[in-house]
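Progress report, Aim 2. The chain analyzed during this reporting quarter is listed below.
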Amino acid sequence: MVDADKILKNAVKNGKVKIGAKQTKLAVKDGSAKLVVISENCPFSSEISTLANKKKVPVYNYESSSINLGFTCGKNYAVSAFAVLDDSGSNIMNLVKKK
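Predicted structure tokens for the chain:
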């Protein structure tokens, strides 16, 4: 069984990410995003998903709120979305392949 929270936390801690919907959209547009993670209550989820699909960037839909995603990422604020630029060996791409 894959522990998604552990993998996400490891990717944020050891890899390179852009946190926030605005930064995520910019990373997808400029082609630096390898994976996009979106919380279930992200106000821009359809816009980010559409943009990611056009650029062929995989999307992982986090099945909880932005508050929980922020906590998982080790932040003391809500995180609605983030883009993974470099996973630093965290196996985060396995989250998308398992679905």
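The first helix runs from residue 4 to 14. Helices lie at 4-14, 21-29, 45-54, 66-72, 93-98. These observations will guide the mutagenesis work planned for the next reporting period.
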